[in-house]
Amino acid sequence: MDLDTARQELEEFIPHVKNISDSSIKKMAGKDLMRFKEFKKQGIAVKFGRFTQKENKQIQKNVEEFLSLTGIDSAEKLLFTSRYPEDKDTIHRLKIEHHFCEKISEGIPRPWRLIYYRARKMFDPNNYKGRYTKEEKEKLKKYQALHGNDWKKIAELMSRSNLSVAMKFSEIKSAINYGPWTKEETQKLMNAVKEVMRRKLKAENPSSVSSLEQSSSDPWIDREKLYQQLPWTEIETKVGSRYWRQCKQKWNSILTSKLTRGQQFYRGTNGLQAKINLIKRLYETKAEDASEVNWDELSNAVGDVPRAYVQTKFYRLKVSSVPLWKRKTFSEIIEYLYEKKLPELEEKL
Fold first, then answer.
1. Prediction pTM value
2. pLDDT (tens digit per residue) in 258-312
3. Is the dihedral of CA 245, 250, 253, 255 positive or negative?
4. CA gap 302, 319 in Å, rounded
5. Higher-scoring residue by pLDDT: 109, 236
């Protein structure tokens, strides 16, 4: 299949395909296109975004079955082969012989590469090593001075994940200010977010930038795009006085306060009715995982508020109302709220 035909056929399943490189298109045509067509026959759409609990379980099942099929010792060897140079050739041969790409993707309507990245995150033992010790922080600073931002190399030297060392160094190097945000800092944050969002919007839809430019200081925040993941380490650099996690937290608080426009939905009888509506809507979705919920639609349950606001209120509701909620699945939490908390709220109202 030629490149133009592949891109055209993939566009049916991936709307942003025009932004994907030619080399990636070729790989997707070989590894994903037939899978996508099979899912279409079953009435299943290709998905993006956060993986559900069901999908995570399927990935785990796929990996375990492939290990059993090939006799490879561990998921770490399978997914991080470069860490085992003595077994590298054998593992690569087994992957090819037993169609690793197809096997790991079974039952999951997503691009193969995203499934592979998710599997690596799930099975990387270096992702779960807890807090950094003082010695590790010193090592991280030394390695960064030697190797720059080659996080892959530094991650190998420290037996941590790439993302972990990059984020930790970002936190260490920042001139951290733990006090209240000043007006100047807040404005820098707003400007930084606006700048990166303008760039993202321009890449996805050039015509959207002109409308963004013409907007006043507040309306542009209403754009749905602002709920997407933002490059926080880049924003941190632009702000200068706060590290990335503080920037993210402050931005979320800005979104909530800006978009709620001072409306007090969770006070008095309005608050009770909002909680009742929220529980009912969540129960009606029959979702097995939080990522399956359309939080934008749910925002209508409490009024003209952003998705992040509704998610925050749901979190507070489950923490205050559901005993041992950490041990329950998402659907179990919703059932408890519906069966136990809802009648109580309705009686109170």
1. 0.49
2. 555 444 555 678 778 888 888 998 888 888 777 778 777 777 656 666 666 778 7
3. negative
4. 19
5. 109
Which of the four pLDDT bands, split at 50, 70 and 90, describes residue 335? Answer: very high
Can you say whether residue 231 is alpha, beta or left, with left for phi > 0 and alpha for psi between -120 and 50 degrees? beta
The pLDDT tens digits of the residues spanning 200-257 come to: 766 655 554 444 444 443 434 444 445 456 788 788 888 888 877 788 888 877 776 6
Amino acid at 342: L
Please say whether the beta carbons of 75 and 31 come within 8 A.
no
Q: Which two tokens stand for residue 194?
A: 């606006």
- Long-range contacts made by residues 79-82, C-beta under 8 angstroms, separation at least 24? 79/116, 79/119, 79/120, 79/123, 79/124, 80/120, 80/124
Local structure of residue 216 (DSSP, 8 states): -
Domain ranges of the chain: 3-123, 134-173, 183-260, 268-347
Calpha distance 174→172 (Å, rounded) = 6
Please choose, from the candidates 337, 338, 268, 278, the residue with its C-alpha nearest in 3D space to the C-alpha of residue 303.
278
- Please answer whether residues 192 and 238 qualify as being in contact, where contact means their C-beta atoms are separated by less than 8 angstroms: yes
The CATH number, out of the four listed (3.30.420, 2.40.30, 1.20.1050, 1.10.10), of the domain defined by the range 134-173: 1.10.10
Looking at the chain, the whole-number percentage of residues with pLDDT higher than 70 is: 81
Copy the structure tokens of residue 154. 């530094």
Please state, in angstroms and rounded to a whole number, the distance separating the CA atoms of residues 92 and 72. Answer: 11
Q: 91: number of CA atoms within 13 Å, CB side? A: 18
Amino acid symbol at 318 = K
Burial class (CB in 10 A: 0-12, 13-18, 19+), 343: exposed
Q: Which has the closest alpha carbon to 307: 186, 206, 226, 218?
A: 226
